[in-house]
């Protein structure tokens, strides 16, 4: 199945091991949890056949996002990336199912 995803313009003239590595690394890089994505160093090692392929789950988790409903920033508490929001929001968590 994996090789069916290869570009048909390649006319099946490709190294199957390279395609397998490219496809799996692409899926790994697209993981919905940024903490589980590889570093560029890991990617290079895998693509150069210097490290084993990662085991990709057969079903990727679906991201769930934290709701900020009811949060209103004040002038003394501007909302920006990395700031803590309200106490009630802090008790909520984002998770994957």
From TrEMBL:
Gene3D superfamilies: Transferase(Phosphotransferase) domain 1. InterPro entries: Kinase-like_dom_sf. Residues 72-85 have a biased composition (Polar residues). Residues 72-97 are annotated as: Disordered. Residues 86-97 have a biased composition (Low complexity). This is Uncharacterized protein. It comes from Ilex paraguariensis. The lineage of its organism: Eukaryota, Viridiplantae, Streptophyta, Embryophyta, Tracheophyta.
